[in-house]
Design brief:
19 strands; NADPH:adrenodoxin oxidoreductase, mitochondrial; six-stranded mixed sheet; NADP; alpha/beta; flavoprotein; FAD/NAD-bd_sf; binds NADP nicotinamide-adenine-dinucleotide phosphate; six-stranded parallel sheet; Ferredox_Rdtase
Amino acid sequence: MSMFLARRLVTRCFSSRPLHVCIVGSGPAGFYTADKLLKAHEGARIDIIDRLPTPYGLVRSGVAPDHPETKIAINQFSRVAQHERCAFYGNVKLGSDLSLSELRDLYHVVVLAYGAESDKDLGIQGESLGGVFSAREFVWWYNGHPDYSSLKPDLKSSDTAVILGQGNVALDVARILLRPTTELASTDIATHALSALEESSIRKVYLVGRRGPVQAALTAKELREILGIKNLHIRIKETDLSVTPADEEEMKNSRARKRIYELLSKAAAAAGTFEGDCGQRELHFVFFRQPERFLESDESKGRVSGVNLEKTILESVGSGKQIAVGTGEFEDINCSMVLKAIGYQSVPINGLPFDHKKGIVPNVRGRVVSTEPGLYVCGWLKRGPVGIIATNLYCAEETVGSISQDIEEGGVGKSEKEGSKGLMQLLEKKEVKMVDFSGWEKIDAKEKQMGIDRNKPREKLVTWEDLLAAASADS
Ligand code: NAP
């Protein structure tokens, strides 16, 4: 049946009886799902819950402060949250405040869209040393996420930081470390991060990839942006730019790959014979190196003093893909901080099937497999931690298509459910102090007001106490 016909029938079926839906996670995947469900089902009553008192997930905590244009999606999400058939309840944590089975008892449809709030591990020696962070921790720190506002990364012990991975998250954290702080001061960066960056002695950032310039996971727009930072010297070894027939083939099949290679080659040529200059900021692209172990400082026990890297070569594994293989040759880069930007990871919850290898909930077009009908996923929890905000539009469309089909076929939405009313009773019984959208609006107003004094779009509240106090303040 076509999606169009399914929508028409479903809308008619539910015009008299509400379809109670709970979406867990108020990031892009959650809000796009809510938007599409509201449009597809006249009878849908949607509650969006989030463990944080603030909505918008990755848009608030993940998008870099110097990318305000990406945050415009918030306007659309805010309209969805204020729709008469939609409600936001923050400070409600699935897994501790509520169980999945409790939610499923209350709602016809539960959509899990809580993203990827953990990190892939390298599983190598020294990974727990002080000064080794995941890029997510660092991003949450500079974005004022209340779980990481007290991280205190040491930016003063040396002039060098190493970033492992060459995706867009790696570029984000490199840019924040290297961009002149005068350019960050007027963004919504957390003040504790701005102050630390203003005092930072980091001048050299090594961006380490296990494969070559043709395979770097970053995108051209973001690469151009970092290459364009004022007074930043780019260092790329000429030898890393030589290409094999397999690389040529990859570039022939992907204009994006070719463009990135050309940009890197141009940057290498422009760098010329620069020898280094005291205080000058430098970005070193290091290719064909994989992390072997983290080195512990002799002077400062328990802290990282460098990374031992193994040189790699590429091996074709069919269908045009090349993987990195260690050569048994090693070298060190000394540094006082390492950021692992090798990918985010979703976290399982009790009662939910989970594919630990892929880090996703096993699903077919958003339908969670091996469970009673009515449970769905969307976003990074559904497809893994890749893609930009807009990718979630298509992802949500697919999940909502599956929901519509299941309702139409009679597998979902037939029984009586309590929806919001039952949720409110349960939260009250459990003494969970949820923050509704009006509570968020108070936080929002306070942050914007505080931002005026500092010439910023907002000054984020960065502790749980401050956020909850602002949400419950008298207006
Ligand atoms: P990503 O794009 O998947 O990049 C991960 C990087 O880590 C790759 O260079 C990968 O190398 C490397 N890596 C993975 N496992 C490794 C290991 N065991 N050892 C060494 N290196 C390893 O992930 P991401 O940077 O976290 O980004 C997540 C998604 O968000 C991406 O789709 C990204 O485009 C998007 N994003 C977009 C923006 C933007 O549009 N401005 C900003 C941030 C993020 P291999 O390629 O060899 O696996």
